[in-house]
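Predict the assembly for these two chains.
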Amino acid sequence: MLISDLTTPALLVDRDVLDANLATMSAALPGPRLRPHVKAHKTTALARRQAAHGHTGFTCATVRECEVMAAAGLGADLLLANEVLDTRRLGALVTGGARVTVAVDSAETIAAAAAGGVREVLVDVNVGLARCGCPPEKAGDLADAARAAGLHVRGVMGYEGHLMLVPAPDRGRLTRDAMELLVRAAGDVGGAVISAGGTGTYLDNTWATEIQAGSYALMDTAYAGIGHPFGQALSVLGTVISVAPDHAVLDVGLKSLAMDHGLPTIEGAEVRFCSDEHTTFVPRDPVRVGARVRVLPAHVDPTVALHERMHLVDGDAVLETWPVDMRGW
Amino acid sequence: MLISDLTTPALLVDRDVLDANLATMSAALPGPRLRPHVKAHKTTALARRQAAHGHTGFTCATVRECEVMAAAGLGADLLLANEVLDTRRLGALVTGGARVTVAVDSAETIAAAAAGGVREVLVDVNVGLARCGCPPEKAGDLADAARAAGLHVRGVMGYEGHLMLVPAPDRGRLTRDAMELLVRAAGDVGGAVISAGGTGTYLDNTWATEIQAGSYALMDTAYAGIGHPFGQALSVLGTVISVAPDHAVLDVGLKSLAMDHGLPTIEGAEVRFCSDEHTTFVPRDPVRVGARVRVLPAHVDPTVALHERMHLVDGDAVLETWPVDMRGW
């Protein structure tokens, strides 16, 4: 099959770039030093490729991601790096033989984990991103409360998400400051795990015992800006459906690429705006109606979540088609 | 079932507000004066409710929307108000008994319609939105070409999408200017149909024979700003998963609401930012972990496209659950 046979819009993954990204990351963070985050691709076929590179523990953002990973035989060590109140489905996974660790940052989330049948937790510590996580000085008390509730505390997590796109060298200095908080909390909490980091800080963060990077596999134009050695593996293939004297229109729009990080990029063209099912762009060289064009999204995670499937390609050849099987909640 | 039983994030549709919106629109634009656009809800159960209000012709943006509408028995008069090059699946619908009219704006899209087995077209005219549509002065020639290719030309369409959120009275004046172009093109093209308009211009546009409004049914905060008599029927239900001294966090994020029109709104709170699965907000009154909060998205169409289902609710009671069955392409 060729990409010209695909219904557009279609998510394309360049096989060579993907494999190079996986190999580069595995060389830097081998085996358990990396806990790949599946939220960035939501695709068990891609997670299986990450497992083949030696990473058998995975990070998830939703209960659904845990369920589908476990069902695919990838549930040896799943971290739900997020707080959940409704833990019944997680408990069912544990009963079914998966290893599931969940983040807790409050008495309520500890009670929910215990009540739902989850046995292992990480204490989530706020290291500067204004989101989840307890204050660092409360982490020890929460660990005690979790143990009192019968839970095994594996350690801490703390996501320095606000630093991912900060340019070097500030990124390194700020990561050190954030991780100082986490390492101190880890001392209070006990346990072997210090889980943190992401694609932006994968080299800066030398304090975490495991890095939760996800975007490195497929990449996006936001991450491309910081100069890491990962290539743009993901694009959205579109068809030119209309050509006007001063612009052209693709059948790729808001419903096939996420706009939270801004407009997408088209090589050799200026993107003017996106509508639900359209991108209006100004090509440098004339394009014809029916031509296929690849669009690079600014943010990979929510773009992938809009698609039912992704196609692994080598040039114009479609090698495999993978269901994006971890969508929804 | 109560909304407290739902897994979050969950799409809620307030039954009373929805029914009021449908009734208000049907009173203003009865029967064939409205051709509801299904792209705004992607849900045949909701389209069936629109049909019950007397609107039996529908507007679609994708081939998939046409297919699912036809399969649901709602294919009496479907307009695919978009250019398509791969028309084979549309031809199959026509063969299966659905009435499908497709927009054309070029020799290529006319050839595709004819080759794919579509029998009826509208000539799409650019009325000022820099997107699809032929120049008005070319519409007559395209109609001749379509007839020469064996197609029945039902008339014209022209979407004044750039005017939807313009405040009155400018919106009325600019709509008149745009529709002057379309009416003139309609004279050159022939046929009975002048299809145009949307929720923003549903009262301004008195030149179109049918209005393609969609957002009026569920609404969003962007459209709420122009003061039309449609209420916010749609919200995303979230659970408070973490509470910090200066903010709280919901399990609703970029993957459950679209950000292309900006941040969502929470009554009685200030939204700070959204991440993949989180909204960080500052509530006016304290909230507790586990509380349920409704989030109003800025743009309804791409928000709905992120969800597998929507729940029709009356207060805290879940009345029905509808699959969002027109997603994908």
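The CA atoms of residues 192 and 204 of chain B lie 20 Å apart. The first strand of chain B starts at residue 10 and ends at 14.
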